[in-house]
Structures are given as C-alpha cells and as structure tokens.
Amino acid sequence: MEWMVWTLPTAIFFSVIAAILLGMTAWELVSPTVERRGFLPIATTRGDRLFIGLLSAAYIHLAVVGFTDITIWFALGASVLWLLVLMRWG
Amino acid sequence: MTRSVPTTPETVRQQAAESAAKRRKRARSAPIRWRRRTLLGLYLVFVMLPIYWLLNLSFQTNSEILGSFSFWPQNFTLGNYVGIFTDANWYMGYVNSLAYVLMNMLISISVALPAAYAFSRFKFIGDKHLFFWLLTNLMAPPAVFLLPYFQLYYSVGLFDTHIAVALAHCLFNIPLAIWILEGFMSSVPKEVDETAYIDGYSFPRFFVTIFIPMIRSGIGVTLFFLFMFSWVELLLSRTLTATNAQPIASIMTRTSTASGIDWGTLAAAGVLTILPGIVVVYFVRNHIAKGFALGRT
Amino acid sequence: MNKVYNNKAWFLILPMLLLVAFSAIIPLMTVVNYSVQDVFDANTRFFTGTEWFETMLNNPTLQAALLRQFAFSFTILAIQVPLGIGIALLMPKRGWQASAVLILITLPLLIPWNVVGSIWQLFTRGDIGLMGVGIRQLGYAYNITRNPADAWATIILMDVWHWTPLIALLCYSGLRSIPDAYYQAARIDRASKWAVFRYIQLPKLTNVLVIGILLRFMHSFMIYAEPFVLTGGGPGSSTTFLSQSLTTMAIGQQDLGPSAAFSLIYFLIILLVCWVFYTAIMNMQKDNANQGGA
C-alpha cells in the first residue's frame, strides 16, 4: 500500500465515491428506479443522472482550476448544487 | 443444354423473358464486374505493397539493402532468419510473446464466458453502468496506467514475468471478450436455457455441455480478437518486462545500434511477427465477418 | 430478448470484476494520488493540491498535442469511413475469393503496432524504401524526417493502411446480414444502385458504423507505437500525439505528478466521448427494438 502514496484528501474523495455507490445500491434495493424524461434530452435512470452529474462535476472542477482564479471550494459547491438539480429534475 | 419445346403460350413468354433477362444481365454486369475487381485489386495492392517490401528486404543482406535498389532480392539469402533462430535472445522473444498471449487468452475467456452470460440473460442492479465501465477500460489509453502498473506489479513481485503482462492485458481484453460474447449469446434463443432447466440440467452442466458448444464459433472469433489485441500491444508489455519475459516487439528495438540499423534482421523479425496472425486468421476466416460486428448485425 | 431480473447474476460477474478491478481501479486510484503530490519516492513527497492540473491545462505543448490529436482523429475518420464502406461493397460475397480477400484485408490488423511503424519506415525511407525512392524518382524531394507535411501525410497514409480494414470488415459483416429478398424487391422496383445503397444498405450499416467509428476514434487517441517508430514524433513535434507526450513525460522525465494530472485530463476526455457514443448506440438499439416490436 505504501507505493500507492495515499493522501488524506484523495482518501476522502474515494470514500465519498464508494459511499455514494453503496447508497445508490441500497436505494435501488428499497425502491427501484423508473426511467423517465426530465430536462435532459434523453430518458435517464437515477444511476445515469448520477453519472452525468459526476462527469460534469469533474469538468466544472477542471475549468475552475485551470482557467480561473476562483477557489476550488466554489467549484465543489457548484458541482454539488448541479448534482442535486440533476438528480431531482434531470 | 437442351430445352424442352414450349407447348403453351405462358411457357413461351416465360422462356423469352428469362433469356432476355440473362442477356441483359450479362451485357450489363461484365464491365461492372471488372471495374469492381480492378478497384478491389488496387486496394489489395496498396495493402500488400508495404508487406511485400518487408519480405523483400528480409531476404537481402545489409550491404545489398543499402548498396543497390531492386524490386526483388538479387542474392537471395536466409541469413537474417538463421541469425534470429540461432540467437536465444531473439527467438526467446517470440516464445515470451506467445506465452503471455496464450495465458491472457485463457484467463480472459474463462472469466468472460460467465460474465457475458449474465449480461445477455439477466437484469441486475447496475448492469448498464457496469457494462459501460467495462467499455471505458477498453477505451482507456494504456499510457494512463503505465506508471502505477509498474509500481503495482513490482510491489506484488510479478515484475518481469509472463503472468504480469497477461494480467495487464486483461484490462482491455476481458471487456472486449464480454462485448463480443454477449452479442453471440444474445442470438441464442432463451428457450434453449429454459428447456434444459426443465430437463433437469444444473446451471454448470447446462453451461458447459449445451451452451458453450452452441456458441463455439463465437468463442473462436473471441479468441481470435484476444490474440490480436494482446499480440499487437507494445506499451504495457514493454514496460512490465525487463529480460526474462521480454516480448519480441521490444527486442526488435535492439536492431538499431550506434553503428546504424540492422535493416535485414529488422525486416526478418517483422516478417516473423506477421506469421502467427496469418495462422490464427486462417482458422476463423468463415466466422470473422460476424465477429467484427461483435456478434450484432 | 426479455431479460429476467435476478441479482444472483452478480456471482457470474464477480471473477471478472475482481480481475478487471485489480487492473483498472487500483492503478486509477494511484494515478489520482500521484496527481495531487510532488513525488520523489514513497517517503519523500509533498502535497501540491491542484497545482499540477493548473499547469497541465495551461501547458502550450500539451494543448498543441491535443489539437493535433483531434485534427488527426477527424482526418483519419473522414478518410477511413467512406473508404471502408466502399471496400466492403466491392468485396466478393462467397467462394474462395471471399476467404482470400478477407484474410489479405485482415492482415494489417494482426501486425504488432511497432512493426507497423517499422514496415512503413522501411517502405518510405528515401534510400531503401519503395515508396520513398518512387516518389523521389517522380521529382518530389520526399523526406519525412525534414518536412512536417510529408511526415503528417505519411502517418495518415499509414493509419489508413493499418485501420481501414477494421471499418471494411465491420461493414462487410453488416452487408452480409441483409436478406436477398430485399435486393430482389429492389430489382423488381427497378431501383437505382444509389437507391439500393441509400435505402437498403446504409440503414443496415449504421449500427456497425457507430461501433466502428467509436473503436477507431478511441484507438486513434491511443496511437503511440506507430508514429514513435516511424517519425519519433518529429520533425520538431509535428507528429507528437497525446499518448506520446504523456509517455515521454511519465517514463522519460519521471515527472509523476504532472503526468498523472495529465493522464486524468486525458481520461476524462475519453470518458466523455465514450459516454456520448455509448448512449447513442444504446438509444439506436432501443429505437430498433421499438420499431421491430411495432
């Protein structure tokens, strides 16, 4: 494990991702998802919306970090907000 | 060719129409057929020309290659091939490459078969996302994984072994195998499974004795693809080996030395890397077209 | 096919999942760890946060390599897709000729990628190569180590030689699955060749073509060994594509942090493109199934 050079932030990051995946699985077992159309142009399930949310979050972070001087916490906030909007109305 | 004498007006008309159609077809299709053949022939020449040139150079000595330009070997020599087959460093490269390719084919197909069956027959939580994740591994550039692979296999003590390269190639070969096999399996009607279960077959027995024989052409094509992608890969196999398991592809870089490039040996080694592919493709030639569409057409 | 909902299927997936996870997830996590640190060795490292991402995104060399990569990918797609369809239409349908043509056309796909580079190096050299000498005889000073345009054109030609067979074989298999009845109906209607292509053959090809374009696009993003052997990325950096920039940085200069950050950006681009194509394929299959059911 030593060679994997873990740091606290990345450990937290992967734990959160794992927790989200576990949570989604549990949610799916309790109440299975229904495919539906929201404001996105394609019909999506909960899992699809989560993936779209996470992928766009990655791009939001890259854009903020790479091309602006705004703090990364702003990107994180915006991403979480966007993810919630997507999950609810997407 | 004898024709019965027409007796009714219908048969007369029918025969006249048939012969007219035949004449028209012949008149129209002869030039078209030749144009098709010429175009295809031109493309095949384009495909074969570089390979022919490799073959041509492999039968020449270095002094002939550099000294005179000719379309075929003037002093035909097998010296380059003899050099490769008598030098253990060289021919072990082929043995190493074949060893990890075969290991990879065995590992990939044995874990991909049940997985592909699951994807083709069942719905389960996260199936679509899992399939997509597999696909991303097929698409991921090996360069991205290069650094950690080196560290990973070094830390588990597998560096410079055949199995390390075989496992690393699983990254893209297992997803590929599942993708192809899933297509072939989906074309087997589900009633086959159900009948077998009613007849009292257990799942493992049904899978091995009935299902696998039914999709054997699909398995053949899958093995062909596994061979192909593991055989042609360079970056991972070169990074994960040093001397004991060095693939032929990285041994070939040895032909360029300070005193220049050993063109003859390079060409001969290149020719020898093409041969296994020809053998493999010959076996699956009748199923390959379906395989290229990943079983779904 | 109506699939049964059964979560026990996970047991069939498990062995595969463990193997692929070992090869994919552990390395990916490590890349993420590298990307936020300045690593000298396992014990000497400093946390750098997002610094590497910022540097990499604003690195002009890499931006140029990315643009070059897209230019390359779209050029080869624009050539290979029509050419591949054309060859598939020309290929004989049955008999020994079909087998022979099939084997010959598959040949370039089975050659190790660095050998493809070597073959083209031997073929295009100005002193010993057939093509190199041939073009010089025609009076053009062809030189791939000096002239970027020559190098660029040669790499495109090499890729067309190497990968058009994939598109051709995909289309060929698509064409073979069209029942003869369709062609007979077209003949009765006296449909023109173009109409047959447009309304019978092309619709059948869209499915395989999307797979083909996806595979080609992705593979062109990974292109490494062929240009590395043929031109070494030169002259200058005119044929240095993404994979090669990355490998040079990671292996050549041992810059773990920056190259990891760059890997992740590279991976995100691949992920997005892959997802768009995958969704397109899935929706197309869904539409087909709906039409078939109606």
Automatic annotation (TrEMBL), chain A:
The keyword Transmembrane helix applies. Keywords: Membrane, Transmembrane, Transmembrane helix. The keyword Transmembrane applies. It comes from the Bacteria. InterPro entries: DUF2160_TM. The chain crosses the membrane at residues 6-30, 72-89. This is Small integral membrane protein. It comes from Billgrantia montanilacus.
TrEMBL record, chain B:
Keywords: Cell membrane, Membrane, Transmembrane, Transmembrane helix, Transport. One of its GO terms (cellular component) is plasma membrane. It is a multi-pass membrane protein. GO terms for biological process: transmembrane transport. Residues 1-24 are annotated as: Disordered. Residues 94-284 form the ABC transmembrane type-1 domain. Residues 1-12 have a biased composition (Polar residues). The keyword Transmembrane applies. It is found in: Cell membrane. The keyword Transmembrane applies. InterPro entries: BP-dep_ABC_trans_perm, MetI-like, MetI-like_sf. The chain crosses the membrane at residues 38-55, 98-119, 131-150, 162-185, 206-232, 263-284. It comes from the Bacteria. Belongs to the binding-protein-dependent transport system permease family. MalFG subfamily. This is Carbohydrate ABC transporter permease. It comes from Billgrantia montanilacus. The lineage of its organism: Bacteria, Pseudomonadati, Pseudomonadota, Gammaproteobacteria, Oceanospirillales.
